[in-house]
Amino acid sequence: MSDVKIPAEGLTEAVKRFYETYPYPRIDPGRSVQSTILGTPWCAAHHALDNRISKRVRILVAGGGTGVALEALGVGFAAEGVTPDIVYVDLSQASAAEAKRRAERVGLSGVRFLIQSIESLAKLDLEPFDYIDFSGVLNHVAEPAPVLKVLSDLLSPGGGIGIMVYGRLGRTGIYPMQNALRLLNGAPGAGDPVDTMRSLLGNLPAENWITKNPHLGDGIDIPTIELADRYLNPNDRAFEIGEMEALLRAVGMKINGFVSPFLYDPLPLLPSEELKAQARAMSMIERAQLSEWLSGTLHIHQFFAVPAARPTIDPEAFLTREDTRLMPSAFGEAAFEALSRAAGRIMSITMPYGGLKLTRKARFTDDESRVLQLLKAGPSVGAVRDLLAGEGVDRARSDAAILGVYRVMSQLGAVHIWAAH
Ligand SMILES: C[S@@+](CC[C@H](N)C(=O)[O-])C[C@H]1O[C@@H](n2cnc3c(N)ncnc32)[C@H](O)[C@@H]1O
What we know:
By secondary structure, this protein is of the alpha/beta class. It has 16 helices and 11 strands.
């Protein structure tokens, strides 16, 4: 029997109805959100804008939900002296109302709220955007290709899109459960789907993928809004990273970076030098796809896309500039502190990834540990050099330590470059 699906023409309406009932994400509107699933303003600036940051940034929050990215980007850019000029769009009135309350609470003024489909933005005469936040939305649109076309047409040549989509392999187990629920729910007299799903989850055999998949581990106790998001969405699709790259290529875009680059590096998963050499000879996207297939666990992809014609800029080139700042992301102050106390020892670094924590090992020298200690404040390269010079570390040594720390921590998505022009 094939999947139980809603006809394509009714999908956008069905998705709208779903998000009117279950606005996402459910986060206490009184709680501030400083970073989102796609990271922070400096993560966006680093990967999507190649650090071409000026005094204003035009942002589109596409499928903005309850407004967490709206708050994180708006407040974050403003705090760094960049005035955000934001348009928010979402199908759901209920989500937009919550996003508005969130924006008002943090004093974000001038946001333009549009309650309509992303597809319909093509008919408006909008000025191009520098940055588009597009998180968790492509999974639910009626057809991905036309939506990506609309967004790529709305982008300024120096701009970029931050994208989160579901990862197919890491969601193993979810889709059969969605089908089972639709089938049961379609029967006359079916009960509340949330209750039905909870009772199904409580009765799964140990061999079911949901039971076995640690990435889906919250089982029967999952909060209602998360349960609905995972199992009740009327239109839900997941992607492999190679498919995403092909969709983007078709609209003249390319992947420019990942929130957590280490997840897309297959080298640690390859057991011989021969296999590693093969992987090194591959394109970035082939390596990323290989890593996804070998790890088998990616349940979300978080990455940045830019116009394909734009030359690729090596962020390390900014590290020679005195005013370049090294911004800590997704990583608590305490963690930087702990790492900095472990010079010479192999340290475990734990990084957040879509509700999970992933651990990687690293070893830092004495000089690098000192740089790590300074990082939590988001220092400039010049400030790090000066502080280390005061401790007798010459320029060549401090630059080597900055580069060493940058290479490890940027792979983990824990440090980004902020180099306002
Ligand atoms: C999973 S939520 C993500 C919300 C938000 N981007 C975040 O990451 O917190 C998906 C959102 O996309 C919106 N959405 C889905 N399809 C859309 C479309 N075609 N046009 C506009 N919004 C859409 C939904 O209404 C919902 O608010």
